[in-house]
Amino acid sequence: MGLYWELLLCPSANCTENFAKGDIMDPDWVDLAKVKQWKSDCLTSHGSKCDDPMKIWKTTPAWLVDVELECVVPGKGHSNFVALSYTYGDHLGLKVDGGLSARLREPHAFRTQEIASRIPPTLTHAMFITKSLDERYLWVDALCIGHDNPAETARQLRMMGSIYASATLTIIAADGNAEDGIVGLNGVSESRALEQKVISFGSRKIIVRGTGLFSLTSGRTPYFSRAWTFQEHRLAKRKLFFLKKSAHWECQHWQSHEELIPGAEIDAYIEPRLVESLDGFPELSSLSNIINGYNELNLRYQEDALPGITGLLAVLSRCFEGGFLFGIPEMFFHRALAWGPYWPHTELQRRTPSDRPRSVQLPPGHLPSWSWIGWEGSLNLGAEAGRINDICSKIEETYPMFEWHTASSPTASMPERRRIRSNWYEHREEWKSGTTQLPGWTAVDMETDQGTWRDEPRIFPAGCGGRVYRHQNMIHNKNHGPTNDWYFPFPVAEISGTTEASMPDQTPYLFSRTQRSFVLGRRISDTMETTTEDTTKIIALCDCLSGRSVGTLHLHSKEQLGRFPFVEDAPTSGHENLHDCLGRILISKEDMNVANSTDEDPSKIEVVAVSMTRSDRKTWNQEASRCEKPFFTTEVVNVLWIEWENNIAYRKAAGVVEKEYWEQLILDDVDLVLG
């Protein structure tokens, strides 16, 4: 693709054209009057859509910065406040212990040399902006969360999601880090030295836009690469960005930029998935998208992987019944436990804790191997047939095979373990049957089985068909892709501002009486080359006795890939994802080295069963370039590759074995303890 510019025409002197929206900005100073108008317009015109879009319980922080008294004050009684979202950079930030906390509460403490010298410029500049917006209170984590009481610190971390959601607006310092400050604040910070591209066009002026459609959701600045800012950005209801040396506004209703004249609107993308989940619709694929966006980001301390998203998970727990155990939704536990890398070439890195003393680490700091929390990189939790997406050529449903329990110790007795209940799987067949009247749902008979995408036939899961279901809280649309139709009704949580989070204790060990087998791993033809970044990490799983390919394993890293030999005549289909099994073939024992394999053979691995997934898919018509009938069904057993250490098993990767072949393998019952 070639380079292109997005242009905006500036208004003429009489300013009569609706299409003239560009504004020439001051090269030195941010237009705070325009910023103040954005806030006023939203507060007076947008109503509940922006006041409480996510229906999150109103939270008042324990402590707030009083920008008039220039000190930290109790938050009780102050419901209106501004929050700050920023990155520390190499600066580790303040650690507010008991002694410093007392000094911060003294009036005008921020003027004293002792305190002022320890506060990074971005925090000072945020105080100025807060005051300029006629707000008095500001919440900043570095000043308002104490670290002398671990239990209280943990409580404040759990509240962070609701704090950002409760803030009147959130200042997002997306340029630089805490030490860089926010440039362009007249009388407070240095000139922003803005170089806006302005083109003369006859008597008119045209400006080159400095922002694009996704500028406020992703970017190349450190802010968008840091994990800690992810939930802050997602949960803030009104956002005031300082990005690319200029100011920008986003609320639930619109976006505006300093380069636009007041009142001008332009194409905008406002991320919808989180709001949909918070309407009470627990869609696993949408959750997977949210979590994937977080897990690709950077952490200074790897043990912060769960604390960094605890606030967001707490908010989502009101929709996903049972909450989250180390990021795995208990409602879909049997499927999500078999999560895997997002792409065939995705590289996952095992997280390892830092050498910081436990006393200064944020709870809970465990990094269990069975959870995506324990791995860094792009991932996929899987999907469950629920909301109809006509673009998809297949649908999947998972079925439990075994019970799963959790506890805080690997030696916990059965009474000390908590059983994990997956509500979706326990009641799904009942919901499909229609025997239970569920409020808010309307059944709509289908006149045709054609979907909205290229008139392809719509595929239904077992026990469904002939009708679809719509809920009063979702407005029906005809857009291609995810519709607002569902295959079957289910209880939709009535979420309001008083609905509290429900999160289980974060216990890091899993227990199950499951089945195991030993299989051989073999690299297939296009995994022979291991020097390129796009090397696929999906390998064949083969029966140790026959050499027959029985499934696939999606490895986490190229380091793991080097453990397995390759065969050129192995099947190469099935790289779309874990449930596209390799074709069934017989490979000679000589090629597979089966006859010579021993228990010491590194390619001989132990896999344990997690659950079973049924996949229904359409047939691809190459000539017509569309999916058609007939539909066909496959059933696979989701498995984990594990290795034992001191009687505790650790996940290495996940894969699938075709159900028919799983039942033909040599299977043993095993009391699994996953750490």
Summarize the structure.
It contains 16 helices and 31 strands. The chain is of the alpha+beta class and 675 residues long.
Polypeptide structure, described:
With 675 residues, this protein is of the alpha+beta class. It folds into 2 domains: 19-270, no CATH class; 272-381 and 400-421 and 507-675, no CATH class. The strands form 8 sheets. It has an 8-stranded mixed β-sheet, sandwiched between helices. Strands 25-26-27-30-29-28 form a 6-stranded antiparallel barrel. The chain starts with 6 loop residues before the first strand and ends with a strand. The relative contact order is 0.10.
As a percent range, the share of strand residues is 25-35%
Overall pLDDT score: 88
Distance between the termini: 47 Å
Low-confidence stretches: 527-531, 570-596
Strand order of the largest sheet: 3-2-5-4-6-9-10-11
The count of helical stretches stands at 16
How many strands? Answer: 31
Radius of gyration: 28 Å
In which range does the helix fraction lie?
A: 10-25%
What shape does the CA trace take?
Answer: globular
* Biggest sheet record: 8 strands, mixed
Give the count of structural domains.
2
- Please identify the structural class as seen in this structure: alpha+beta
